[in-house]
Write a structure and sequence with these properties.
By secondary structure, the protein is mainly alpha-helical. It has 6 helices and 2 strands, in the order H-H-H-H-H-E-E-H. The chain has one domain. The longest helix is centred in the N-terminal third of the chain and has 43 residues. The radius of gyration is 21 Å and the shape is globular.
């Protein structure tokens, strides 16, 4: 009964991981489009896209951590698992127990990342003062869209002033989500075992994180 309930919860977790992976793919497509636009405008019109470097850095963080949970789910996280694969083939029970132990350690490390990044997210989000009266600046008007735009101007920003700036909190939120969901998936792998077939991924066979 407990295992059945955990399997149902895991299915929902997996669905969200797949949705996040698809979202990361759309971010990647947008990044490719922006880089192509920069190449075309730079060569044809001598007018490079301003802030393309900032966009690349910003987008890469979104792509990596949006797709991280699904990479964990499918067992494609790059690692050195030659010994683990040998143990699974020669001593399946011991190999399975070792795999669960490693998944438990990975879950712990992902939780540590979440524990570290979450305060940074809350600090950067609170710097916008979306719902609070800031020490300096206009008071909230009650108009949600107007207050949101005003708050964005106060956020802790990443980028180059005068070229391109973006608030830090969305990236830190995505990092927190990606690591949290990866930790949850590692937890289910530890408790229920890895339902995915073991995969041996190398730098030559896969370019995934």
């Amino acid at each position: 009964m407990i295992v059945t309930g955990l399997r149902k919860i895991e299915s929902w977790v997996v669905t969200i991981a797949i949705i996040a992976n698809v979202s990361g793919a759309f971010v990647l497509l947008a990044l490719v489009a922006i880089m192509n636009l920069d190449v075309v405008s730079r060569n044809l019109f001598n007018a490079p896209f301003r802030g393309v470097i900032e966009v690349v850095i910003f987008s890469l963080a979104l792509i990596v951590f949006l797709q991280l949970p699904d990479v964990v789910r499918t067992g494609r996280l790059t690692r050195s698992d030659g010994f683990l694969g040998l143990m699974r083939s020669r001593a399946p029970r011991l190999g399975g127990a070792l795999a669960r132990f490693l998944d438990a350690i990975a879950c712990l490390f992902m939780c540590l990342i979440v524990w570290t990044v979450w305060p940074e997210f809350t600090e950067s989000f609170e710097s916008c003062h979306f719902f609070q009266q800031p020490e300096f600046g206009p008071a909230p008007t009650g108009n949600i869209w107007t207050d949101f735009q005003t708050g964005l101007a106060r956020c802790d920003y990443f980028g180059t002033p005068g070229i391109l700036q973006a608030p830090w909190w969305p990236v830190r939120l995505v990092i927190t989500f990606g690591c949290l969901w990866a930790a949850i998936l590692f937890f289910f792998k530890t408790i229920l075992g890895d339902t995915q077939a073991p995969r041996h991924v190398t730098a030559q066979t896969s370019g995934e994180a």
